[in-house]
């Protein structure tokens, strides 16, 4: 008789394995706000802005010398992989653009910051990884839905030896209900000589069909462990969104830093290039004056020293530009996600700075409270604690379960002494009452404490968000004023340098004074670029504090 059930069991198991891919309803995720940390510090000093049209132009440098040496296997070495079998695309060499030419000028239509930000949205690997956490959370929710899977049951219970020889086989299905309780149905066959007190186990010739349900009337009626786990996992799916938004804001902030560092590096290269050309342009004139006896030979030597020194500084500026370009390529990518090292022709000028009206701060702070992900994340945590509290209150209730079952025997009676009727209806009520209920009361107390902690944390978080907006605004305004003053200083320093060069050409000054004036002009120009870089970095911080960058919220499948 057992053999008759084996094909059915095997088919059921095969169906279960084949049907693992199911469309599970996903919870609709509400909008979330991103979490950011506003950091006013930066690791590198800022670089020059537009000095004047002559002093400021940005050039892009790219690393040129790359060691592309392929390891060769010697005759006494065993190579595990033949060089011919190596996929060249696997070891692709980056396409590094050339350094800017001598007459480089910043482009009027260069690479825009929004293009970099768009690239972060579309292709930044860590953002893609963060988005994949949606699948992780959905998978965890699917696991909790597995608690409501219908179950196939089968058993054989035989007593072939002894006075009472019995043979019983039964199969059935159990379907847990979302509302609580479960449905059950099955079929059984009982044969043999049963004990008088177990006569209900004996069935008619064609077996017995049975179906019924169990319903909780008190405890587990509105909530139980299965539903609580499902609701928590649903909120877990929602909780992924604030984390994704938080990471997006951080990536955009970092990408903005890298972009402005690159623009500033180009501006500093322009300054280094211009100051070098000034020294080179004087060389022939000083050599002629030395040959005619109007200047002493050390003047020419000093200018040649100056040319060599400024050439070294220009090389340093080229290296910094190359490094900034490579760093920017981590955030600036093509449609396939491969890094793009921007070329010198893509370097723009610093855009015009704009001062933010102080009256906007209050409005922006309120907007940040709506957008920032911290608040939404805390709200989801509060909902999960509400589930814990409801589950603890449920544990205080007594168990009162109603079970109804109907059974129908089919065929002729196998035992004439069997007085079992062909149809049977059973109604059962099970009651279990906890006395002390210490477990439930302890859980209620614990959850209540956590809710109080969460309320205090939310209050502080809201205050921190407002403070971060105000902090970022103060930094932005301060950087704006600093940059404006630095621009004025550049104008004064450049004017003095021009006057000193004119006096030198007229024989009213010497090379030392000219060199000092030019050096002061260069320092002022670099400080102006640093100030502009600081301003635009602070602008990136303000953007982050307001959580302006938002990804579309995932809609449940």
Task: Summarize the structure in short.
The protein is 52% helix and 11% strand.
Features:
alpha+beta, 9 helices, elongated, 6-stranded antiparallel beta sheet, disordered N terminus, 6 strands, Outer membrane efflux proteins (OEP), 557 residues, 11% strand
Give a written overview of the molecule.
By secondary structure, the chain is an alpha+beta fold. It has a domain at 30-62 and 94-150 and 221-397 and 438-545: Outer membrane efflux proteins (OEP) (Up-down Bundle), CATH 1.20.1600. It is 52% helix and 11% strand. It contains nine helices and six strands; from the N terminus they run H-H-H-E-E-E-E-H-H-H-H-E-E-H-H. It has a six-stranded antiparallel β-sheet, with helices on one face. Helix 3 (125-145) runs antiparallel to helix 4.
